[in-house]
Amino acid sequence: MREPNEADDAAVARARAADAAPLRSVAALPGPRGWPLIGNLLQFDLPRLHRQFEDWADRHGPTYRLRLGRREVLVISDAETIAALLRDRPDTWRRMRPIEAVIREAGGHGVFSAEGDDWRRQRRLVMSAFDPGHLKRFYPSLQRVTERLMASWREAARRGEAIDLQASLMRYTVDVTTGLAFGVDLNTIDAPHPLQEHLDKLFPMLFRRVNLPFPYWHYLRLPIDREYDRHLRRVHEAVRGFVQAARQRLQDEPTRRERPTDLLEAMLAARDADGSALTEEEVAGNVLTVLLAGEDTTANTLGWAIWLLHEHPDDWQALVAEVDAALGDARLPPSFDAARGLASIEASVGEAMRLKPVAPLLFMEANRETALAGFRLPPGAVVFCLMRRAALDARLAEDVADFRPGRWQDGADRAVQKASMPFGAGPRLCPGRYLALLEMKMVLGMLARNFELLEVGPEGGGAPGERMAFTMFPVGLKMRLAERARR
């Protein structure tokens, strides 16, 4: 039997505090009017779901209710309440079960979708592949991929061509992720690879399934479902190829079992040494999970950061000055430690993730009876967390809606920083956060050292639109560059 832990104690303390105060009913909260029986389900606008929920918060208040069929849903946008919920994972709270079901069906049952003891067991292995020590050993490969991206952008600059920014960044992050996690050099930057193309199609299809009220595809296959199956089948073929290649490396070089060089080798070595460590399904599921989590999240954050910096030239020039001073004659950060030390980039990225979080919503479900924000919630209760709304709470600072990277360096805006949780919070903090920050420092450092930003934005000008497709991405970002003169 599992021993009680700190999360259990915290949950008990909150429950006792709730017992001492009158608790409210979620049903009594204001919220958008829905339809009989189906509630608000048919009102959801999936491509702009995050904006829709934020608009409803403007209309009904920071805490309101939705109805999914007959189920009442609590919607919250207070940072302290959200942080308390996340600290109680995975024992009191989990992702909504339909999300886990869709991910499992896709063959992606890994650390992202696992819960409870299942998650604890898998997380130890996955974390080891993304710790700073392993990233430092991987740094030469990261430099090589970044050099390819630089060469691609230099060629576009010389030709005066607009770069499809999101497509370019997606190729970069796929190459980095497959190299670090699976020991495979896909090089999608120089030549398109089918895997990346299939992943791009899967993201909006997965998001659509996650948000549908009923898994109709179990009973009826529409053309979009057959297309989904085709893309998923091709991705699984690639995953099997990664696994087979890693097994061959372990067979050819048995010493790798003691010192695996990537996540996949570590999982297979653990699987072979102790069958209880990971099942074959979990090995494949974590490969798919890392692919899905490692591509669009970092690429979309980079896209938003580059656009915001272009819109704020003083902040961009301050970043360029820091990079020039740190890199000297080098075109890229020359070492792992040099990249990690680029404080202006980290501040700019932190501000971009606060204003344009790629995960602006979290959908949670209670594992047991609990209390939250003055409401008693039964097992199975659903809570939607508005992550961006919490980070932009006007009570935090007068300039909370402004892009000001300096707030991450001067230490004056602690409350604003705490309210931003782009990597989550509590025990389930994103295991890939160190890699994501390192990738962003490499790309922004390379961009600042070698190029001038001429144009960044949609064709025709204006701010890029926001669209949800598993994560929130900028629509139609194009970038034009000029090469900087060498010092």
TrEMBL record:
InterPro entries: Cyt_P450 (IPR001128), Cyt_P450_CS (IPR017972), Cyt_P450_E_grp-I (IPR002401), Cyt_P450_sf (IPR036396). GO terms for molecular function: heme binding; iron ion binding; monooxygenase activity; oxidoreductase activity, acting on paired donors, with incorporation or reduction of molecular oxygen. Heme binds at C430. SUPFAM superfamilies: Cytochrome P450. Its cofactor is heme. It comes from the Bacteria. PROSITE patterns: CYTOCHROME_P450 (PS00086). The keyword Transit peptide does not apply. Keywords: Heme, Iron, Metal-binding, Monooxygenase, Oxidoreductase. The keyword Oxidoreductase applies. Pfam families: p450. Belongs to the cytochrome P450 family. PANTHER family: THROMBOXANE-A SYNTHASE. This is Putative cytochrome.
